[in-house]
Amino acid sequence: MKALVFSNKLEMVDYPVPKITDDEALVKISLAGICNTDREIMKGYKDFHGVLGHEWVGKVEKAADKSLIGERVVGSINIGCGKCKYCLSGMEKHCPDRTCIGITGHDGCFAEYLSIPLKNLYKVDSDISDEEALFTEPLAAAISAVKDASVKENESVLIMGDGRLAYLIYLGLIYFAPNVKNITVKGKHPEKLSNFTSAEKILSFSDDREYDVIFEATGSDSGMEEALSHVSRRGRVIVKTTRAGKCEMDLNKIVVNEIKLIGSRCGDFKDALYVLKQHPYLPQTMFFPLEDYLTAFSIPSSKAFKVGFKIATI
């Protein structure tokens, strides 16, 4: 099969079709999306070598469970050991021995086929298009951040960033914190800020206004420093950016102002599929053939809401 393999550099190669066990499915990939984490892996994050990519939608081609064959599916990315205290309590994403599709120890979806445990699969409702289903993984992570924040009705919220992750956090607030009305989005691109229809939109901080809850979704070196400068005393900063480099911050400010930093990562696919069914509109994605990976990866996030690969027509 054709696959994009990263081993110190990204290249397309002829790669073996995955072999599956009775606990796994072989999925023919339809669409796959490029995530900022993929870009960070290419800078050295997680020291990953193998087929890149973890956002996808496809159709089951082989499985011991014959009822799954032909089903359109998406799949959660963490594969735990099934035995540790985290796996046994439903927190596979924290399993010390986990693999993670396209990120740690398991080939990803920038290929014609992907192997994945049956327990990680979620069927996609016919009302959800492939293009919408492609957002299941990042939307689940964004909703998880909203739940982790536990925003109260009277609290002020700032989303830092105007890209894909910021918009998905915004959707998470709409559907999982609907009583919260005081939402501000700070971004750099007026055309992207227009997607946040019911939020206040700002391009810069014009005063010393503080926010009770800040979602840091900029992916920038200065994002955390800026968030700490505008979070209220005893406020909360939800950190979503993963990166290859390190981030410096003023711990004194965190201690003195009693600020809570909350890391948030993967989420529940059922939540994301629920939102996608209720909210069919998402900004347009640019798709390329897998062979045009150099072009796809050259497009900056400022130029497209989402960039992905159209690998097969299903």
Q: Helicity, in percent?
A: 10-25%
Contiguous helical run count:
10
How big is the Rg? 20 Å
Strand content: 25-35%
Shape annotation: globular
Number of strands: 19
Secondary-structure-based class equals alpha/beta
- Mean pLDDT over the full residue set: 93
Q: Main β-sheet: number of strands, strand sense, barrel status?
A: 7 strands, mixed
The poorly predicted ranges are none
End-to-end Cα distance, whole Å, is: 17 Å
Q: Order of helices and strands, N to C?
A: EEEHEEEEHEEEEHHEHEHEEHEHEHEHE
Structure description:
The protein has 314 residues and is α/β, with parallel strands linked by helices. The protein has ten helices and 19 strands. Strands 3, 5, 6, 10, 11, 18 and 19 form a seven-stranded mixed sheet that branches. Strands 14-13-12-15-16-17 form a six-stranded parallel sheet, with helices on both faces. Strands 2-1-4 form a three-stranded antiparallel sheet, with no helix packed on it. The longest helix is centred in the middle third of the chain and has 14 residues, at 136-149. The relative contact order is 0.17.
